[in-house]
Amino acid sequence: MNTQITSGIKISVATNFEGNYYKDYAILYAFSYEITIENLSTDIVQLQSRHWDIFDSLNFTESVDGEGVVGQTPIIIPGDKYVYSSGCMLHSTIGAMKGFYTMLNFTTSENFEVQVPTFKLNVPFAIN
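Above: the chain's sequence. Below: its structure in token form.
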């Protein structure tokens, strides 16, 4: 599990390979990931948006931006956590993702970025 703390917000990521899929005459590799966002600060925060950079070993790169995560913009009080699962498809058996969340601090009314640590996406049979 990869973990990183930014401005009192702890991000933990666990990944899983879900299988191969065929789409438009190509093999795609599906991965799921579970992210835990834990508020270690003394302020109430709300996740506003996300940014992802998705890489694979064939040099294919995709950037994704959007509001919230899985259709939600959770408010996380101090000492609480929010957990969600999502996924992505790669064109190769090895890849990685990194990104950040834009959060709103309710105490200061300011937005800040929380880094998501780079996490690997590997098909188990591809790496010894």
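The two ends are 19 Å apart (CA to CA).
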